[in-house]
C-alpha cells in the first residue's frame, strides 16, 4: 500500500479500492506463492495504459469550454478493455482508476472474456442543452476514437452517460472511422443495442439479492427496500424489486431523498423515469406530486428497511449509516453502485453478519449484458428479451456461486467480499501467468 500511495498520490478512492482487494487477496496469495513470485497483485494495480486529453467545445452562448477526458486501460489479460464512461464534475484520475481496477475483477466474475477499463470526463451534463451535450460528445470522441475499437477497448455508459450520450459518441466514431461496429455498448435498439441492457445493472442487483436470500431459504417477497439514486440503476432496481413482490420506499439524488411508505409502484416509477430521463428534473418533485416526505440534503439510510440497494455513487454509506441500517433490521445490502460503502461501513456489515453483496459482484449484470451486446454485434443477430434476461439471471447465479466457493467461512457465514475478490482474481491472475511478464 505504501508503494501504491507513493506512486498514485492524491487518489484516495484508488487506494481504498486496492486496499480492500489486497486484504482479501494477501492471505490467498500467501497460500499460492506462484502469484507472489510473479508479482501479480502489484501488476494488476498498475494500469496497462492511461490516456488523458483535452476536450474543447463551444457552448450555446458561443463561448469556448475546456474539459479533461480520460481512458484508463487497466487490464487486458482475459479480453479487450471494457468498462463505462462517466461524465460528472467530480471525475478525476483517482476515481477512474478505482473504477477501472474494480472493473477488472468484476468482468472476470461475469465469466465472459472481457478485460477492464474505465473513462470519462469532468464534464457535467446537468443543465446543458442537447446540442451542448452533442458538441461535447463529438469533441470527446474525436480524440478517444484512436484508442478504442471493437477488439481493443469497448466503452459503455456510467453516471451521466446514458442512451443520449452513447448515441452522440457512436455517431461521431462511425463518422471518423467509416465503420459500423460494436465499439460501444448501451446503444439504441435500432442500431446494435441489446434488449435488457438498460435494465441489466438494476435487475442484476435484485437477482443477486434474491440469490443471497435464497441461501437462507428467504426471498424478496414482502421486503421493504431503501434505494438510493434515481438514475439508470435505481430505476430498474425498483422495477424488478416490485415485480418480485418487494416494496421500494425511497429514491434520492444529489439534493435529497424522498420517502414514500406506500411504495413506489409501477405507475409512480413511470413518472420518475419521465422526470429523470426526459424532463431531467429533481427527485424533490416526486414528493410534491405524490404527497410524501422529502429530506433535503439527506441520504435514505435512516428509514426502516429490510434490504438496501445503494445505487447512486461511491462512499454514500458511512459507518454511522451502516450502524443505523443494521439497528433498523436491514438484513441485505446489494450494491448497484460501485464502492458505495466506506471500509468502516463494510466492517459493520461483516461484524453483524448480514448479507452483503459488494458492487463488483452485485452490479456485474450491467457489464455482463454489455458483453452479450458485443456477442450479438459480432454475430449481427439480436436476441430476444427472454433470451438476454435468462442469460443475465444465469450469470448472476454463477457469480453468486463463485462467491460461495471462495467466501464461505467455517461457521457457514458467506463473506461475499472475499468471495468476489478471490473469485475475480484467479482467472485474471492465471491468464497473466500464462502470458508471461507483459
Ligand atoms: P445515473 O447518472 O443514471 O444516475 C446516478 C444517480 O446517482 C442520480 O440520481 C444522481 O443524482 C445520483 N448521484 C450521482 N452522483 C452523486 C453524488 N455525488 N451524491 C449523491 N448522489 C449522486 O448513473 P447510473 O445509475 O448509471 O450509476 C449509478 C451507480 O451505479 C454508479 O456508482 C455507477 O458507477 C454504478 N454502475 C452503473 C452501471 C450501469 O450500467 N449504468 C453498471 C455498474 C455500476 P443527480 O442527478 O443529482 O446527480
What descriptors fit this protein?
single chain, 438 residues, alpha/beta, Rossmann fold, five-stranded mixed beta sheet, five-stranded parallel beta sheet, binds NADPH dihydro-nicotinamide-adenine-dinucleotide phosphate
Architecture overview:
The chain starts with a helix and ends with a helix. α5 links the parallel β3 (81-87) and β4. 52% of the residues are buried. Among the domains are: 38-180, 3-Layer(aba) Sandwich (Rossmann fold), CATH 3.40.50; 200-362, Rossmann fold (3-Layer(aba) Sandwich). It is globular, with a radius of gyration of 21 Å. It contains 17 helices and 13 strands. The protein has helices at 2-7, 12-31, 33-37, 40-44, 93-109, 130-144, 163-177, 197-215, 232-243, 266-279, 284-290, 319-327, 343-352, 359-362, 365-379, 385-407, 416-435; strands at 49-58, 64-75, 81-87, 116-121, 153-156, 224-227, 247-248, 250-253, 256-259, 293-296, 307-309, 332-334, 355-357. The mean pLDDT is 98. With 438 residues, it is α/β, with parallel strands linked by helices. α12 runs parallel beside α13. It has a five-stranded mixed sheet with strand order 1-2-4-3-5, sandwiched between helices. It has a five-stranded parallel sheet with strand order 7-6-11-12-13, sandwiched between helices. NADPH dihydro-nicotinamide-adenine-dinucleotide phosphate binds next to α9.
Précis, in short:
The protein has 438 residues and is an alpha/beta fold.
Amino acid at each position: 500500500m505504501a508503494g501504491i500511495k507513493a506512486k498514485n498520490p492524491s487518489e484516495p478512492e484508488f487506494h481504498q479500492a486496492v486496499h480492500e482487494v489486497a486484504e482479501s487477496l494477501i492471505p490467498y496469495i500467501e497460500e499460492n506463492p506462484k502469484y507472489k513470485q510473479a508479482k501479480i497483485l502489484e501488476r494488476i494495480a498498475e494500469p496497462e495504459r492511461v490516456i488523458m486529453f483535452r476536450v474543447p467545445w463551444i457552448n450555446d452562448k458561443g463561448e469556448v469550454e475546456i474539459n479533461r477526458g480520460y481512458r484508463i486501460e487497466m487490464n487486458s489479460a482475459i479480453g479487450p478493455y471494457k468498462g463505462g464512461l462517466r461524465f460528472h464534475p467530480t471525475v478525476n484520475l483517482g476515481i477512474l482508476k478505482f473504477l477501472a481496477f474494480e472493473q477488472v475483477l468484476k468482468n472476470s466474475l461475469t465469466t465472459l472474456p472481457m478485460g477492464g477499463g474505465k473513462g470519462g470526463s469532468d464534464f457535467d451534463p446537468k443543465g446543458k442543452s442537447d446540442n451542448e451535450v452533442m458538441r461535447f460528445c463529438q469533441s470527446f470522441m474525436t480524440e478517444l476514437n484512436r484508442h478504442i475499437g471493437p477488439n481493443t477497448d469497448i466503452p459503455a455508459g456510467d453516471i451521466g452517460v446514458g442512451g443520449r450520450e452513447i448515441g452522440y459518441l457512436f455517431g461521431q466514431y462511425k463518422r471518423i472511422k467509416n465503420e459500423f461496429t460494436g465499439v460501444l455498448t448501451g446503444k439504441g435498439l435500432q442500431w446494435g443495442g441489446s434488449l435488457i441492457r438498460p435494465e441489466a445493472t438494476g435487475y442484476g442487483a435484485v437477482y443477486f439479492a434474491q440469490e443471497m436470500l435464497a441461501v437462507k431459504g428467504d426471498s424478496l417477497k414482502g421486503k421493504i427496500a431503501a434505494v438510493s439514486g434515481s438514475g439508470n440503476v435505481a430505476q430498474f432496481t425498483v422495477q424488478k424489486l416490485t415485480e418480485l413482490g418487494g416494496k421500494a420506499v425511497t429514491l434520492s439524488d444529489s439534493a435529497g431523498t424522498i420517502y414514500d411508505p406506500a411504495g413506489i409502484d409501477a405507475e409512480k416509477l413511470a413518472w420518475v423515469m419521465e422526470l429523470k430521463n426526459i424532463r431531467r428534473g429533481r427527485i424533490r418533485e416526486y414528493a410534491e406530486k405524490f404527497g410524501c416526505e422529502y429530506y433535503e440534503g439527506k441520504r435514505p439510510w435512516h428509514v426502516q428497511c429490510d434490504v438496501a440497494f445503494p445505487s447512486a455513487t461511491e462512499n454514500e454509506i458511512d459507518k454511522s449509516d451502516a450502524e443505523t441500517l443494521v439497528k433498523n433490521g436491514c438484513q441485505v445490502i446489494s450494491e448497484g453502485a460501485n464502492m458505495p460503502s466506506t471500509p468502516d461501513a463494510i466492517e459493520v456489515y461483516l461484524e453483524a453478519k448480514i448479507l452483503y453483496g459488494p458492487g463488483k459482484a452485485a452490479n456485474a449484470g450491467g457489464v455482463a449484458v454489455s458483453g452479450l451486446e458485443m456477442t450479438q454485434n459480432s454475430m449481427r443477430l439480436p436476441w430476444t428479451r427472454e433470451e438476454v434476461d435468462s442469460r443475465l439471471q444465469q450469470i448472476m447465479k454463477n457469480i453468486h456461486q463463485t462467491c460461495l466457493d471462495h467466501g464461505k467461512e467455517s461457521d457457514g457465514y458467506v463473506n461475499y467480499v472475499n468471495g468476489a475478490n478471490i473469485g475475480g482474481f484467479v482467472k485474471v491472475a492465471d491468464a497473466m501467468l500464462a502470458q508471461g511478464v507483459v
